[in-house]
Amino acid sequence: MTSISVEEGIQKSHTTPQDEVVIKSDYDARLANSDLAPLKKQTWSWYNIFAFWMSDVHSVGGYVTAGSLFALGIASWQVLLALIVGIVIVQVFVNLVAKPSQSMGVPFPVTTRFVFGVKGANIPAIIRGIIAVAWYGVQTFLASESLNIVFLKFIPATQTLATDYKFLGLSALGWISYGILWIAQTCVFWKGMNAIRKFIDWAGPLVYAVMFILAVYLVAQAGGISHINLNLSSGKPLSFMQSIPVIITAIALVVSYFAGPMLNFGDFSRYSHTYKSVKKGNFWGLPVNFLVFSLLTVICASATEPVFGKLITDPIETVEHIGAPVAILLGGLTFVIATVGINIVANFVSPAFDFSHVNPQKISWRAGGMIAAIGSVVITPWNWYANDQAIHYTLDLLGSLIGPLFGILIAGYFTISKQLVAVDDMFTMSPKGHYWYHKGFNPNAVLALAIAGVIAVASAIAPSPLKQLGLFDITWISNFSWFIGAGLGYVLFVFFERRNPQMPQLDAASPEVNNGALPANN
């Protein structure tokens, strides 16, 4: 096989300057460009990681998710317990998935090369990229709905655009709002990771400020905290034994909500200067930040009942009910910014790396991001988002594959390779390279993904039709599809590697081996 050198094939249109990464002369351009190569210097602090999680948590989806847990029929203290346990589990898993990328200074798709093979790594890259495109479209559409409210309030003439003109299922006003946000997100993304870091550094705190103002306003309108019932549970109270499975389900929902950002986190942890700073940022950004935001969510949602006469768990609807122009402008634009924040960090950056990874010679990080952005329009998310069945089958099917990818990566890095990776071999197409395996694919990883993926997908989408057919009701299992996929991915990959070893056993003392277990990386 003829090797293509980086000098012969690498593009100059990448966001990371080549003098900021390690690009060796023997790196194959089919595997390397300045966006995928190891970083020379990692500069992000713990606050940047903290801000990343603020952008993920402080969104309309995070608000609705946290609020919905209080309506499961269990007591408030039990919901808070589920929130704490769930987010601590997320923190532990995030710390694990952060380690290989931070230690080697490379994004997620590159880290999968030592597990799946230098060619096989495109399988998880494509899967993750497709998932991100779907969610990118949905999140942009949801943010555009908030922007519609601002337009309708301050420019009444836009009502005609909202009702009289439609194209491909979306109103003219919807297209305008979607287009504005599409361009705004693209502009932030196009300026590169430094601009994204600056954006998320202030976007999360801004939402906090508005949430505090909203909470104070609603509590005052309700006549004080004593007039608010903080227990949002509905229906007949559950006994302790009845509440246990509900609490477990609530924990699973918290973990599942963060499944995407959790898998994507390596794309950001690669920029952190130490693993210790990553763990510190994760601590403040996940259990501490999530708990505070959840409490603010409960206060705001609980106050809507005495203030508006009904429980409202959607912050956009809450702001709309306030009616005051300043409130709609401030609240609407803030939650637009919040949604843009999570969309960029969770659904824009990652597919940019994924699609660039498929063909580094022809697809730069920016080009990969534009593929995702254009794809988000082509799928017309407003059409299938309005269809409950379409959402259930599409997003659950895609999301179910996140678990196996996570489990296989963790098994490969911590259990099989013992955190020892020959980084240079992840950038060579030579059959003599450690990660060439069989024609560039590790059969154990591919087989584990196929089996775990099929079972995880079945656990997510099969229970609902089985119930509708009147066979049996196991719909509860859908809430645990991520755990099923992650657990099976881990166990199957370890089993296959033990039975038929493919991954190399490297010498920790070798200067060519990255040892993530060394104290210097902690």
UniProtKB/TrEMBL annotation:
Keywords from the UniProt entry: Membrane, Transmembrane, Transmembrane helix
The record's annotation in Pfam families points to: Transp_cyt_pur (PF02133)
One GO CC term, this protein: plasma membrane
The record's subcellular locations are:
Membrane
- Tell me the domain of life: Bacteria
Its transmembrane ranges are 49-71, 77-98, 133-155, 167-190, 202-220, 240-260, 281-304, 324-346, 367-385, 397-416, 445-462, 474-496
Principal subcellular localization = membrane
Mode of membrane association: Multi-pass membrane protein
Q: Which InterPro entries does this UniProt record tie to the protein?
A: Pur-cyt_permease, Uracil/uridine/allantoin_perm
* CDD domains, per database record: SLC-NCS1sbd_u1
The terms under GO molecular function for this entry are: nucleobase transmembrane transporter activity
| Family assignment from sequence similarity | Belongs to the purine-cytosine permease (2.A.39) family.
The family database entries (PANTHER family) matched by this protein are listed as: NCS1 FAMILY NUCLEOBASE:CATION SYMPORTER-1, NCS1 FAMILY PURINE/PYRIMIDINE TRANSPORTER
The name under which this protein is listed is NCS1 family nucleobase:cation symporter-1
Species source reads Bifidobacterium aquikefiricola
